[in-house]
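Recall that a protein's primary structure is simply its ordered list of amino acids. Everything else, from secondary elements to tertiary packing, is in principle encoded there. The following example makes that idea concrete.
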Amino acid sequence: MGAPMAGAPNGFAGGAPIGGYQAGGPQMGSPGVAPYPGAPTPTHQSGGPYNPLPAQSPSSLPSTSNSPRIDPAQIPRPVHDPHAVVVKHDTRNDRGGANHPPAASTTFCARDLGSANPRYMRCTMSTIPNSGDLCTQSGMPLTLMVQPLALPHPDEAPILVVEHAQGVGPVRCGRCKAYMNAYNRWVDHGRFCCVFCNHTTECPQEYMCNLGPDGRRGDASTRPELHLGSVEYAAPNEYMVRPPMAPALFFVIDVNPVAVQTGATTSACEAIARTLAAIPEQHRTLVGICAFDAAAHFFKFPSNVAGKENETATKTSQTVKHLVVPDVEEPYSPLPTGLAVPLQENMESIKDVLAKIPEMFASGRHGLPCGVAAIKACVEALKPIGGRVVSFIATMPSGGYGAVKGRTAMGGAYSSSQSNTSIEKVRMGLGTQIPPTVLSRSW
């Protein structure tokens, strides 16, 4: 039975007639009222009329829960109005002091005048205590929230990039390695005192500049790192252990009969085809395609190599090869290299394969989908070059390497640790032995 509505007498809701009696008046079974005409009035054991206790509201009843949890409905939340007026915020004032940041619930547009935009760096306390004891007594958390990749307001100026000449990296403190900023104090035209550790460091000769009467450098207004609070430093070659590797993407598509019939395969192929044009640096990006049902299917795209010896070799090199990996218990890469090809040179071939995949697997093989095995095979294919595997899975990978079993099949004893087994296997890179069997066909 549901709980009685608040404010309704005797547990009846509203004023609807119940059993021929109007709710709110004397009811059958009520204390002191006869259950039927002519019946004796109920009395107390002492012989007097029965007087019930006064009704109590639900709020006055004692709580049945002893849990100290806070009711989320009682937590105050600031009201956010997306249509509110945009607040203009300058990080520093005309006297050189820092301005208090606007409330976190407001929509603001900040202007960097020497301090970082509150969108990128913000403190939980606008005024920092001068001692640790005072901070402890206040009970307020002193935390710095740093979000260097936060999205700026459309009206805010973009963050400037600091680039140095070849062979001259970013100027940094010799002790704490802090980067050059607007608050370092310059001792003379070639030495500066770090604002963090007070260590004096000599800057490179190319970075030297004369100081003005106020102790500021003459080029402070032209160098972003000397008058702005947020800048980006371009890392030179000296900061790289090796040259940057080409980004690689391997797309895994579910072509199980269920995925094909429901349209998931077609949707995945169309989404990938639309995304290819938006991938940056297409001349360097490598892309590979893999499909899976009861086996893993790889597509070897032709390599555009000039200087072919004869016409037959040229025709063979322009054929897309379909490689099938039937062993899903120990997945492997059908080729050691070459499964991920440059995107710009093979854009048309990749789009053509994506358009044909739903038709190719319209009458695919029935069996347990081997999604985890296909991902593991793509990881093996990307080992020499590195990269990322993007999978489109529409059916539960219940077959092959890292198979996932349904909760109902386990009789309710399926644990979360077992559900992460397949993912951990892929991360650990187990089962790297490559069987010799590879089925190939050209189309």
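The chain has a mean pLDDT of 78. The longest helix spans residues 347-360.
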